[in-house]
Automatic annotation (TrEMBL), chains A, B, C, D:
Domain HTH tetR-type: 10-70
Organism placement in taxonomy: Bacteria, Bacillati, Actinomycetota, Actinomycetes, Kitasatosporales
Top-level taxon: Bacteria
Residues of the DNA-binding region: 33-52
UniProt keyword terms in alphabetical order: DNA-binding, Repressor, Transcription, Transcription regulation
GO molecular function: DNA-binding transcription factor activity; transcription cis-regulatory region binding
InterPro entries named among the record's database cross-references: Homeodomain-like_sf, HTH-type_TetR-like_transc_reg, HTH_TetR, KstR2_TetR_C, Tet_transcr_reg_TetR-rel_C_sf
Protein name (record): DNA-binding transcriptional regulator, AcrR family
Species the sequence originates in: Streptomyces qinglanensis
Length: 203, 203, 203, 203
DNA sequence: TATGAATGAGGTTTCATTCAT
DNA sequence: GATGAATGAAACCTCATTCAT
């Protein structure tokens, strides 16, 4: 009947993490003060430390939760045994799916990963980064090999192009509106795979 | 006109700005302390204030120098009266050209513009952003109109796609190696315009 | 008289005090957090406040229980009407006896008394300190007067020497091993009274 | 002519260390706030960090300076090739000499060493402690061997007795008054070596 | 009796900035 | 031009304590 002002129990922690993630994404990790997070959560700065060890550990939980989900999805895709073009499409789609669940985390990842990865605690960011590279590179190579992708592609450059192209979307994808992750993914995939130009009449 | 005495001073100033830009790009604006900049320049933190009013004004100079050069280039492109596809290619090329000259500035722009633009002093960032949007949107629309670009494009989405796609490159473009800005630009243009997939045999 | 219900409560209280005393002794009063005490007692920090008013009141109870017992013993010794050397020996023995019962309290006393005594609530620490001084000084003076102690002793210096010599032992007296308080006391008394050197053959 | 309010240059650092040492000794390391030190030095808390990395590093410098001087003195004593009783007397004298120079450091050492030594940075405290033990133990053993010290001594207990007996003096030795370190040392040595009692008539 | 959650004061530290020299 | 020393605001974090449940 009554809407509780503050969700009790384990939910509170998740709520606070969501708040923190929003603020980190909006202002950047460094520019975010724990007071800002606390304000937004309706408590005092010190009170956050009942739930978390440190500001850093909040970022840690946010990022690792995202990466765990993401890699679960990627693993499923890898195990599906699809051809390169379909794998490509499915990886993009999965990325957008996770972006929908973890939007602020993706923004944080995009903006802060490089800096954070320098710390031992965030070692897994660098690891994940490397696994990314391998996964996409492998997919691109398979595609070139079987003729799905252009043979003249510079694979490392293309990899970065695709990677950034996908994640950068998180920054400005405020309202997904009515479009599902799959629809958005399709738009992206189409642009990346087939280009935005019409096919030249003669080539 | 200007007393020659000022020349060495001006040189030092440019040197310091370059140092500051490197550090800002590497560590992020917030995470950069004036002491770090000073250390790298071989002086004490306080001494920087002989040359600059504030940390903010360093970022200001760096960003506005970059944007001034960039818009000079874009203006030339606009005045060249090219078709949409050629304009597109030329804008990308010009962007990469400026990226080569102002790499750290581009990284800073990419990462901090949104936050900085909130301040009155950095108003011009928001202005520039808007002019960007208009310029690219106009180009894309012209291309759709004359059949150069696909008719089903979602112009706002495509604009963001192209914009991010280009600038994000600055983050990892450490050494250009032997490739010139034009070559890199061509690679990018080709990917964005024609896609990375081979064209289906029958369409 | 007392409702039996209170007995288990009282037992718990004593247990908690013992835990607190251990931690205070180990880490120091300031460095001890109520959370550490609570952890060691298997409860949450807040729960301690059901049993005690404050951290300070725990220290208070610990110290006053010790001093009460100690002065009971000293009083018995004083009333025994012994000679100075025997009184000396008996005071040291009694001190070690109480140290055996209240070891952590003695460590706390040793390390924190000076600071705590500044507060009104711990006034009794300063009082006890003064009674100490009087008791030992009187004993030493009696001994000098009747020839038991060397006539050239600097009484105030000797008093401090003896006092510290006895209490400081509490710090490292972890396990008493098989030795009783009396045995240890005897060793101490012997060292203090007769010195550690052999007596010169001719004097 | 004019007394400068604040000593400039390298002297300032030493001054601040002396101030910090006084406060640490008076209030204890934990109970001392950097604000208290700064107040006493006539500056703001943050200003201390221009001179020192942290509160901890102040304690570190204070303690290591003391121990360095102390061990220099002990080394000289060891190299003098004295007999056990003379070595004993000389070690005590050297200890009092350093106590006169580093009184607050000794108090800090006495009260905080155990706790601090747990940290890697203060490893040298534990090392020094161990060297202490060896040095005194060796001296006592030599004395027992050559008949200078009583044969029935429990060496480990005696070692602790002597050690504490000497250092604890630092706590209450406020004004040395007119007595030199040697004079005080002699009083101590006499008490410890020969005891405070007169020689029993018959034994 | 105890928990879970929060408060609020205060602690250490960082850092842009100032200024006399 | 640059240094050395300091300021002051604000950051992260700790902790004794409270209180509804």
């Amino acid at each position: 009947m009554v809407t509780p002002k503050k969700t009790p129990g384990a939910g509170r922690r998740a709520e606070l993490l969501a708040t923190a993630a929003d603020v980190f994404a909006e202002l950047g990790y460094n520019a975010t003060t724990v007071r800002t997070i606390a304000d937004r959560a309706g408590m005092l700065a010190g009170s956050l430390y009942y739930h978390f060890d440190s500001k850093e550990s909040m970022a840690d939980e946010i990022l690792s939760a995202f990466l765990t989900d993401l890699w679960d999805g990627y693993r499923r895709t890898e195990e599906a045994g699809l051809g390169p073009r379909e794998t490509f499409e499915e990886l993009v789609t999965e990325s957008f799916r996770q972006m929908a669940r973890h939007r602020p985390a993706v923004v944080i990842y995009q903006k802060e990963a490089r800096r954070l990865a320098a710390q031992e605690r965030f070692r897994y960011l660098a690891d994940s980064h490397e696994r990314f590279r391998e996964l996409w590179t492998r997919t691109l190579e398979r595609g070139v090999a079987d003729g799905s992708f252009r043979s003249e592609l510079d694979i490392p450059v293309t990899y970065r192009f695709v990677r950034d192209t996908v994640w950068v979307a998180a920054v400005w994808f405020r309202p997904w509106g009515s479009r599902t992750a799959s629809e958005i993914a399709q738009q992206y995939t189409s642009m990346v795979l087939d280009g935005i130009a019409t096919r030249p009449v003669a080539r």
